[in-house]
Amino acid sequence: MRLSSVFILVCTFAAAALLSLGTAWFSVGVIEDNSERSVRTELDRDALTWADVDTVGLQVFLIGTAPTEAARFQALSAAGRVVDSARVIDQIDIEDGDGIAAPRFSIEMLRNDSGVSLIGLLPADTDRDQLIADIERAVRGAPLSDLLEVADYPVPEGWDDALNYAVTVLSVFERSKISVEAGRVSIKGTAENEDARRKIEADLARRAGDDLHLALEITAPRPVISPFTLRFIKDADGARFDACSAPTEADRATILKAAAEAGIEGKVDCRLGLGTPTSRWGEAMAMGIGAVDALGGGTITFADADVTLFALEGTEQSLFDRVVGELETGLPGVFVVKATLPKPPAEDGQGVPEFTATRSPEGAVQLRGRINSEISRQTADSFARAAFGSSTVRTTARVDETLPASWASRVLAGLEALSRLSNGAVVVTPDSLSVIGNTGNQNASAEISGFLAEKIGDTEEYEIDVTYVEKLDPSLGIPTPEQCEAQIVEIIGDRKISFEPGSATLDTVTRDIMDDIAELLNLCGDIPLIIAGHTDSQGREVMNQQLSQERAQSVVNALRQRRVLTSSYEVRGYGEEQPIASNDTEEGREANRRIEFKLKRPEPVEETETTLESIEQSAPTDETAGDDGAEGTSDEQN
Questions:
Q1: I want to staple 385 with a disulfide (CB 3.0 to 4.6 A). Which of 200, 390, 399, 413 is the partner?
Q2: pLDDT at 89
Q3: Eight-state DSSP code of residue 264
Q4: Whether 544 and 527 share a structural domain
Q5: Do strands 59-66 and 52-56 pair parallel, antiparallel, or not at all (unpaired)?
Q6: Do 149 and 260 sit in the same domain of this protein?
Q7: What is each CA distance from 410 to 190, 368, 394, 405, 434, in whole angstroms?
Q8: Domain-located, residue 7
Q9: Does residue 347 sit within a domain?
């Protein structure tokens, strides 16, 4: 009995143990499956398909090869969101890459009164000693602080070009910051004035070429504008500024907003400067522009504190009175308004008197029309000869003593305005003074407007239509067509444009000459050029002419391949017609075989009466007189 009781007790405990083990085994399996399923779901949600999961009891193993360390951390984080992080066992490998990515190489060149500081990271293959020597040569005498670090990685593409460019321009500014990266240079500096800023920017851009990205932030002190002028016009041709000045960016924004509401379209320039007579300049200009718009058109000129308003002929008197009254009471007290409602001009038997002065692209100046006295005519002629050169001036104006005494001063003001243009015309009538033409000065319109407001008085009406032509701007360093012609002579020098014997194929030794000429012509722009071919007298005349034509065309083709604009070029073959030496000697024949570069010159034309409507609006063609040309030579035989 006692043995049976013990056996039963032992069996009971054994059954309980087996049941517990079975329950524990089942529970662990459930936990493993749930953990694995949950972690896989979270990994899939984060698109971490490269990761695999395995579970052993409560432990969750993450297995796989991560593309990056960041991806590995992302997988661990995903698993930690669904199970206790302490249960996650990291068995993830990192994918082998091609090597650690190269660092970003860059250098800051800081120049100030204390010297030059170099800060940044450069490749080990960069010749550091040579770099320091080049910088010391560029800024002689300036102390140099070298804070550069070096990393042994390959030199990135464009790094050497950017670094060399930065060194060459380091001497441009006394104070500057030049940032260098592969293929990119950023320059911050200060110029003495606005003209210097524009010239520096053009020079830096020209040096950079096409393969280097250049970012410029060049500042210049604001100029003193005197008189501080704004002139707004609205007529049948639309709304526009002849001159616009503002003391601050905020004032400029106020003015441009009012101009846009009054009908001005497109980009408008408003010059920033010093010299405004009131801190409320922008507000006052907006009032004036709004007044012209309310009148339906007209002209308003602010010259310092003087305001001149001209309504359009035919404006209703009541509207004119109301708008002018509102303007007078709304403007700050510093301004004095003079408003005019024009009356229809009285007609006489001789028509409306007029004085016209024209200046051609070639520089010829002609004075025509009427002038009020012989003394005034002599004065105008003397002034013109002093301003334009005695040999270029022709005066045919007649004396009309019925003209007002102020006529002479208006004529002289017009001539001075014309002297500020490269070419154009000035027309003086009893009611207006018109200036039209081309200039290389971006601020010419504003300067002429301010000058006329000061010289001819506040009550006089004038009109300015001046076009800025970049190729005429001396601050950009673009040579004139005449200078280009002369520089081609210098470029060729003692060298020769030569061809393979008896053909129009350029000799390989001519490549350098053509490269140099192309570089100059790309700077000169689209100038009217004649490329002429010449031969000696050996061979048949017809064959020589054809060969000279083909050789000149080969030169044009070679320039076109070097991206030179050749649309305005003319090809001429003269054969043996124009020898410059005797064909009886080899030396003479050698000289006669040549290529010449000449500007196209217009044929003399009979003088005709010129009116304002006949003045060309386009840029000058610079087809000026003269015969001298740059010349090279062709091959050794025809």
A1: 390
A2: 86
A3: -
A4: yes
A5: antiparallel
A6: no
A7: 40, 14, 19, 10, 11
A8: no
A9: no
Query: Which tens digit of pLDDT belongs to each residue from 426-442?
Result: 999 888 888 998 888 88
User: Please, which residues bridge with residue 566 across strands?
Assistant: none
pLDDT of residue 1: 46
How distant, in Å, are the alpha carbons of 244, 358, 423, 435 from that of 438? 19, 12, 6, 10
Which structure tokens are listed for 454?
């000061």
Is residue 606 over pLDDT 70? Answer: no
Q: At what angle do helices 159-169 and 194-208 cross, to 10 degrees?
A: 150
CATH code for the domain in which residue 380 is found: 3.40.1520.20
For residues 208-223, give the mean pLDDT.
Answer: 85
Give dist(CA 596, CA 571) in Å, integer.
10
Same domain, 321 and 444: no
Indicate if 460 and 603 belong to the same structural domain: no
Model-level pTM?
0.48
Per residue in 444-480, pLDDT (tens digit) is 888 888 878 888 765 677 888 888 877 777 666 677 7
Give pLDDT, residue 25: 55
Statement to judge: residues 420 and 493 lie in one domain: no
First to last CA, the chain: 142
Q: Is residue 162 part of a domain?
A: yes
CB 115 within 8 Å of CB 141: no
Pick from 105, 110, 139: nearest CA to 125: 105
Whether 339 is covered by a domain: the verdict is: no
Q: What is the pLDDT of residue 479?
A: 77
C-alpha–C-alpha distance, residues 326 and 14, integer Å:
112
Domain that holds residue 64: 25-94
